[in-house]
């Protein structure tokens, strides 16, 4: 059984998740030794800036992704509205990043960017509408080069648990048997989860009335609350691959709508008729109380606790980098902290997200960094630590965070760019960031903010500094020219 007095990650754990954790502990039996042999090694950077010995085991990597979690929803940035003790402990025992961004303010293109290490604009996927503007041939090539592909080629066991939702467009529809966008065809050896943007936490039907719970490439019937199932399969994967290097992508739906708790009535049921599937209307129609939202955060936090307890129980703490982040900003009743906007918005609250990294022995506890960082940085970071690399002709858009893991700073003068909406229409919103300066709006109506002085983006400085607006817009247009497929290629 788990020694809770020693590990101590759980505070108040939901009964169903306690059962999952205990079953996992019983199934595993005795604790694996901390020095279990690892046949595959590399030179990994240490917290002091020196390289680890040549025979040091390659690190395991666990990425825990929340869905629609606001910057102020967690305690490690000072949020007090909701309780997230396990997530806060993860951050306290490692590095918290205060200026960390995702590449899009909504789920689909943000997840695509995280897994590819490249801006979603390279394939036209800026929206969250299953990619009506995606170039199918570029997307096919992109899927084949998601960074878990390179990890698998380098000998890593790879697993994805939970939400997939990589928008690919109708020509590469993810439910098609031959679709290249399935997790198992994008570098993951194991997949337990759902393919759509939204899934009922209880019935596992999606918003179209389709059953949407999969085991690799086969539909699977499995009873249970969604967050608990994702956690249980994550634990099973860690236990199965404890003696070899692994990459685990734990992609939660929580706290995304529908805001359901264990035992709640369904929002979606299986049906041939979309209207019949939505037995309580659209999942966003029903207002959610802060209390219910907080309970969903409690389920997410308990999942993090269970995963971290599993890592500790198997003696993997010092061999495992754990990354926690959200796919985009929060939505009501989530909390964006000091920032304006939220999900679907190019103000800071839409794309600046909670992010923390924990790796005992390599990352000093209680550290903080204010460098401008991006989810695009995870791919080059993880590949570098794993001793893997993409082909020479495959350019990644992020920067390795290895300097931060070594106690150094990130390069200054970095720029980040965003675009949101139908790129071939009139409703495209753009944003660009350099240092503390940010432009945001449509190309015809841009605001300028100094985020150091005005993190809430309330004081538009565009009329006082038109030269900065012009400079950042020119940089954005050049980035757009280099990263965007032409309309005729769709």
Report the CATH architecture of the largest domain. Answer: 3-Layer(aba) Sandwich
Total domain units: 2
Radius of gyration, taken over Cα atoms and rounded to an integer in Å: 21 Å
Q: Roughly what percent helix?
A: 25-40%
Distance between the termini: 55 Å
Order of helices and strands: HHEHEEHHHEEEEHEHHEHEEEHHEEEEH
Helix/strand class:
alpha/beta
Keywords:
single chain; 490 residues; Alkaline Phosphatase, subunit A; Arylsulfatase, C-terminal domain; 2 domains; ten-stranded mixed beta sheet; four-stranded antiparallel beta sheet; 13 helices
Architecture overview:
This protein has 490 residues and is an alpha/beta fold. The chain folds into two domains: 57-411, Alkaline Phosphatase, subunit A (3-Layer(aba) Sandwich), CATH 3.40.720.10; 417-489, 2-Layer Sandwich (Arylsulfatase, C-terminal domain), CATH 3.30.1120. It is 26% helix and 15% strand. It has 13 helices and 16 strands. It has a ten-stranded mixed sheet, sandwiched between helices. The chain has a four-stranded antiparallel sheet with strand order 13-14-15-16, with helices on one face. The longest helix has 24 residues, at 290-313. The chain starts with a helix and ends in a 7-residue tail after the last helix.
Give the topology, please:
Blueprint: H1 4-7, H2 15-28, E1 60-66, H3 85-92, E2 95-97, E3 100-101, H4 107-116, H5 136-143, H6 147-153, E4 157-163, E5 190-194, E6 214-215, E7 218-219, H7 226-240, E8 246-251, H8 274-277, H9 290-313, E9 320-326, H10 348-351, E10 355-358, E11 367-369, E12 373-374, H11 378-386, H12 402-405, E13 415-420, E14 429-434, E15 437-442, E16 445-450, H13 466-483
Parallel strand pairs: 1-8, 1-9, 2-11, 3-12, 4-5, 4-8
Antiparallel strand pairs: 2-10, 5-6, 6-7, 9-10, 13-14, 14-15, 15-16
Helix pairs in contact: 2-7, 3-9, 7-9
């Amino acid at each position: 059984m788990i020694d809770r007095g020693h590990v101590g990650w759980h505070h108040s754990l939901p009964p169903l998740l306690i059962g999952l954790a205990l079953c996992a502990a019983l199934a595993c039996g005795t604790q694996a030794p901390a020095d279990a042999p690892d046949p595959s090694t590399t030179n990994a950077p240490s917290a002091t800036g020196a390289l680890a010995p040549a025979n040091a085991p390659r690190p395991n990597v666990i990425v825990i992704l929340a869905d629609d979690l606001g910057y102020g929803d967690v305690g490690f940035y000072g949020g007090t509205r909701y309780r997230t003790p396990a997530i806060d402990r993860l951050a306290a025992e490692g590095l918290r990043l205060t200026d960390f961004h995702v590449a899009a303010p909504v789920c689909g293109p943000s997840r695509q960017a995280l897994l590819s290490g490249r801006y979603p604009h390279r394939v036209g996927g800026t929206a969250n509408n299953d990619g009506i503007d995606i170039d199918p041939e570029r997307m096919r090539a992109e899927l084949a080069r998601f960074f878990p592909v390179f990890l698998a080629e380098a000998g890593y066991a790879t697993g994805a648990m939970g939400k997939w939702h990589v928008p690919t467009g109708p020509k590469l529809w993810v439910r098609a048997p031959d679709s290249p966008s399935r997790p198992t065809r994008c570098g993951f050896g194991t997949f337990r989860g759902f393919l759509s943007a939204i899934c009922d936490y209880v019935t596992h039907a999606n918003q179209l009335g389709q059953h949407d719970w999969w085991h690799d490439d086969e539909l699977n019937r499995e009873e249970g609350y969604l967050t608990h199932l994702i956690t249980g399969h994550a634990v099973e994967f860690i236990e199965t691959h404890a003696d070899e290097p692994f990459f685990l992508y734990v992609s939660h739906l929580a706290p995304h709508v529908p805001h359901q708790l264990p035992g709640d009535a369904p929002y979606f049921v299986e049906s041939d008729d979309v209207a019949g599937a939505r037995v309580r209307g659209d999942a966003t129609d029903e207002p959610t109380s802060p209390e219910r939202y907080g309970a969903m955060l409690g389920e997410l936090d308990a999942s993090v606790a269970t995963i971290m307890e599993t890592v500790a129980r198997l003696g993997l703490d010092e061999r495992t980098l754990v990354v926690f982040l959200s796919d985009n900003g929060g939505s009501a009743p989530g909390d964006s902290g000091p920032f304006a906007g939220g999900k679907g918005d190019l103000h800071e609250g839409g794309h600046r997200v909670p992010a923390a990294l924990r790796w005992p022995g390599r990352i000093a506890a209680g550290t903080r960094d204010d460098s401008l960082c991006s989810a695009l940085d995870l791919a080059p970071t993880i590949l570098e630590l794993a001793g893997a690399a993409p082909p020479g002709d495959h350019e990644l858009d992020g920067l390795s965070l290895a300097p931060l893991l070594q106690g150094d700073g990130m390069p200054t003068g970095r720029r980040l760019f965003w675009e949101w909406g139908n790129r071939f229409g009139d409703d495209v919103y753009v944003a660009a960031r350099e240092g503390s300066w940010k432009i945001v709006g449509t190309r015809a109506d841009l605001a300028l903010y100094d985020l150091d002085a005005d993190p809430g983006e309330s004081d538009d400085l565009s009329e006082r500094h038109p030269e900065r607006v012009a400079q950042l817009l020119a940089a954005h247009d050049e980035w757009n020219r280099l990263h965007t497929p032409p309309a005729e290629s769709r």
